[in-house]
Amino acid sequence: MKKALIFILIVTSFNLCAKRLIEGYGQFKPVANTSFKTPKKLKAVFDVYTSNDDDEELNRGINTVARFLNMHFDAGVKKKNMKAALILHGKAGKDILNNIAYNKHYITDNPNVELLKKLHDAGVQIIVCGQTVEFRAYKRDEILDFIDVSLSAITALIDLQSKGYQLITFN
Predict the structure, then answer these.
(1) Of 4, 74, 101, 108, which residue is least crowded by CB atoms under 10 Å?
(2) Amino acid 86: pLDDT
(3) Comparing C-alpha atoms, which of 88, 79, 84 is closest to residue 43?
(4) 147 near 126, Cβ under 8 Å?
C-alpha cells in the first residue's frame, strides 16, 4: 500500500510539473526516452468539422490543438517554433459563436469560448468556414471577434498547406 501511494504521488507530481502553454486544457502524458525524435519546428493545421452532441461539452477537436501545443512545448519545442491554425466547419461551426448567440440557439453558454480565446492569445490562427456561417445564417456579430472567416474551409486548408502547414484531422 505504501509503495502504491508513493508511486501515485510521484506520477501526479510529475504531471503537475509538465510545462504548458494553454493552462487548464490539452491534457497529455509526458513520454520519456522516445526513439522517434521530436522535431524542433512544427506547423500544423487542424481540420475540425465535428462537435459534441452535448452542447455544454468542450469540443474535443479544439482541445486537441491545446494538447499539440502543450505536449510539444513540454518536450522542448520552443513556442516560436510552433505554428498552429484551427479551421472549423460543418457541425463545429456552432463552436465559434459568442455566448449571446450560443445561448439563443442552445440555451447555455458556449463551453469553447475560453479555450478558443486562450488558443488565439497563444498565436493560433482560428478560421471558420464562410460557407458554414452562411448556410447556418450566423450573423458576423454572433461570431467571436477574434475568429477569421474564410470563403470556405477548403480555401483555408489549401492556402495553409501551400505554406507548409501539415494537415491534422481527428474527427
Answers:
(1) 4
(2) 98
(3) 84
(4) yes
Residue 11 lies in a domain: yes
Strand, helix or coil for residue 111: coil
The answer to whether residue 157 sits within a structural domain is: yes
Read off the pLDDT band of 9 (50, 70, 90). Answer: very low
DSSP secondary structure code for residue 91 in this structure: G
List, for residues 92-134, the tens digit of each pLDDT value: 999 999 999 999 999 999 999 999 999 999 999 999 999 999 9
Distance CA 29, CA 16 (A): 10
Residue pLDDT, tens place only, 17-43: 577 999 999 999 999 999 999 999 999
Residue 59's domain comprises 2-30+40-168
Q: Is residue 73 part of a domain?
A: yes
Q: What is the CATH number of the domain that holds 91?
A: 3.40.1260.10
Say what the pTM is: 0.88
CA distance 64 to 66: 5
How many domains, the chain? 1
